[in-house]
Amino acid sequence: MTTKINYSDHKYYTNRELSWMDFNDRVLEEARDKANPLLERLKFLSITQSNLDEFFSVRVASLKKLAAVNYPKPDASGMTAQEQLLAVNDAAHKMLNKQYTTLNRSLIPALAQQNIHLYRTDELSTSQLQFIKRYFHDTLYPVLTPTADDSSRPFPFIANDTLNLAVLLNQDKKRYYATLQIPANLPRLVRLPGGENDFILVEDIIKPFLDQLFVKYEVKESATFRVIRDLDLDVAEEDTSDLLKEVQQQLKLRERGNVIRLEVESTVSKKLLKRLTKELDLKEYAIYEINGPVDLTVLSKLAGQVTDHRDLLYPSFTAYQPASLTSSHNIFDAIRRHDRFLQHPYDKFDPVIEFIRQSAIDPGVLAIKMTLYRVSGDSPIIRYLGQAAQNGKQVTVLVEVKARFDEQNNVHWAKQLEKMGCHVIYGLIGLKTHCKLALVIRREQGVIRRYMHMGTGNYNDVTARFYTDMGLFTVNADMGIDATNIFNMLSGYSEPPYFHQLHISPHGIRDFINERLNQATELAKTGKKVRVRMKMNSLSDQSMIAHLYKASHAGVKISLIIRGICCLKTGIPEISDNITVHSIVGRFLEHSRIFIFNLDGQETIYLSSADLMTRNLNRRVELLFPINDPKIKKRVLTIYKTMWNDNVKTRVLQADGHFKRVDRRGHVALDSQAYFADLASVHAKADKAQEALAKPSEFQPMFSPENQPNPLNYDDGSDTH
C-alpha cells in the first residue's frame, strides 16, 4: 500500500526570509570573487547593503509587527513570526561581519594597490589636512545644525536612512548628549588633493572639528549612526474614495515608522550606545555595530567617481537593435510582418520607446492603452504618451501608485499624465497591477488592428540596461481581443468569461500552471516523456511548490532557474529528487520569467510578469502570454538552455538548502550573461546595412548549446531522459 504524502509538511519548505538572506549572500559572493573587476566588486558590496535596507524596512518590519502581537500561525516551514525575527537578525549579523571583512581585508587593500584610497583622518598628509579644514569651514559649517538632547530639548527625530553623529560632551564634570544630522544634499564622498583617486567620507571631515559646533564643551566622543525604519505602506483602500490622496498621506506617515535596525560605529562607548538604544527603543538583536563606514551603499558612489580605471569595470558591449525597429522604419509594418522578440539588455529597449513614439504621431493610431508599474525619473514613454493625447489620441494609462518605493515617483507621473490630457487609472482596490502591457489601436485602410507589446519587466528605460527581461511585439488578433478585455476590466466593471490566449492573475495564472503540471503528472504516470522548465525571480507559494512536488513524485523532470527566494527543497527522496534548481547571480539582475512545458513532444513556451509567489498569483494583476512564432520559440528555448548550462555564475541548490557553485574543473567555462553580451555586440557590429540580420526572429546564435560539448555534468536540456 502506497503511503499518502502530506505535501504541506513543514519539513518540505524553506523559510522565505532566510532564503532571501541566502540570496543576498550570493550577491555578497560576487563582491568576494576576485574574478570580477575590482570596482564591480565594490558595487556588489553596495548592492548587498541596499538589498538589506529594503528587506528590513518591509519584510523584517512586518515580522516585528506580527511578533509584537504574538501572531501564532507559523509559516510554511513551521516558524513563528518571533522565531523568524530572531533568525533573520542572527543571519544579518553574520552577514554584516562578512560584508566588513570583505571590505577591510580584501577590497580596501586591493584598491590601494591601484592607488585608490578611502582615507581616515589620521592617514592624511599635511596638505590634505589643510584641505579638509577649509572644506569644513567653507562648505560644511554653515549648514550643520547640532541638536541638544536634554530635559528641555528631547531626543530629536532621526529620519530613515540618514547619516547622523551621536556626540558625548562634558562640561564641569557633567555629561551631555547631542546629535548632528549630516546633510544629505552634500556629497558624502569628498575627493582629496594629492593622489588622483584619494577620497574621504564627509563624516570623517566633520569629527575633528566638532568642538567648533559645541563651544565651551569638551567633545568626549562621537560615533556615526543611522536607522532603518518601517516603510511598509499601509493603504486602507476599502476606506478611501481617493486612492491618490490616500497614498500621498501614507507616504508622509511612513517616514515616521518604527525603527527596525540601528547601525552604529563599533568604536561607540557603552554609555553612548545605551543612550541611543534607549531613545530609539530597540532590542539588542536590532543593534548592529559597524567596523567601517556606516551604510555601504557609498561604495557604489566611490566606484562611480574613480577616474582613469576603465580596466577595473566590466567590458562594455553594444546592445543590438534590429534596423526594422528603429525610427527610420515604420514599426507597425515590421510587427505586422511577424512577431518581434527582444531580450534586454542585450537587445536595446529603444524599440519599445519607438513603438510609443510612432504611435503618438501616426495618423492611423486611434488609441493607446498602457500599464505602468515602475518608470524612470525622466521617462520618454511618459513624454510620448502625453504627446499622443495632445495629438488627439485616446490615451488610457494605468499607473500603479502602490508600487513599493516608487509611490512618490508614480504619483508625480500620474498627475503629469492627467495634465497632458491622458485618462489615468490608479489601480484596482485590493490589487496591484504588475502586468507589463501596451495596446495600440490603429486604423489601416478601413481595418482596425491591435498592436501589442507585452513584457516580463517594467517600462523603465534605465533599469532595462541592467535587468534581463524579455518582450514581444505582436498583432495576434486573439491576443489583441484579450488585451482589450484586460483594459476594460482595469478601467471599468467588465469581467470577461474567458481569455483566448492570455492568462491573467489573480488566480488565472495559478490555474493555468496547475493545469499544465497536472497534465505533466498524468502523462508521466503512463510513461510519456514530459519536461517542465521554469525561470523566475522567486518561488515561495506553498500550493505551487506542492504541485511541483507532486509532479516530481510522478517522474516529471523539472528544471528551475530562480534568482532569489526559493522555498522549495531539492533532494528529498520521492518528493523532489526530479527537481533541480539553479540560481544565476552576475553582472545583470536576472528578471525575466519563462515557463516551458514539453508534454509528450508538444512544447509550449510562455513569458510572464509574475513570479510564483502568493502575492503575484492572488493579489496582483499579472500577465502570462504564449510565444507562438516557431523561430522565436526556438530562440527562447536556446536562451533558456544557455542559461541552464552556465557554469560561471550559476549556483545549484543543495539538499541542505544552500546554493553551491558549479564545479567546472575540466569543463569549458560558460558565463551566459557574458555570452549574450558578446553575441549582441557581434550582431550589432555586423548589422549596419544587412536587413536580414535586423529581424529578431531570424536572429541566429553564434553557436547553439545543444551542438556544443556540455560544459556541465548536468542534463543538457534535451527533452529525452
Name its key features.
nucleotide-binding, kinase, 721 residues, 18 helices, polyphosphate kinase like, 10-stranded mixed beta sheet, 22% strand, Endonuclease, Chain A, alpha/beta, 3 domains, single chain, PP_kinase, 35% helix, Polyphosphate kinase, disordered C terminus, 8-stranded mixed beta sheet, globular
Give a concise summary.
With 721 residues, the chain is an alpha/beta fold. The strands form four sheets. Strands 14, 18, 19, 20, 21, 23, 24, 25, 26 and 27 form a ten-stranded mixed sheet that branches. Strands 10, 11, 12, 13, 15, 16, 17 and 22 form an eight-stranded mixed sheet that branches. Catalyzes the reversible transfer of the terminal phosphate of ATP to form a long-chain polyphosphate (polyP).
Report on the structure:
The protein is an alpha/beta fold and 721 residues long. The chain folds into three domains: 10-237 and 258-312, Polyphosphate kinase middle domain (polyphosphate kinase like, 2-Layer Sandwich), CATH 3.30.1840; 323-491, Endonuclease Chain A (Endonuclease, Chain A, 2-Layer Sandwich), CATH 3.30.870.10; 503-707, Endonuclease Chain A (Endonuclease, Chain A). Helices cover 35% and strands 22% of the residues. It has 18 helices and 27 strands. It is globular, with a radius of gyration of 27 Å.
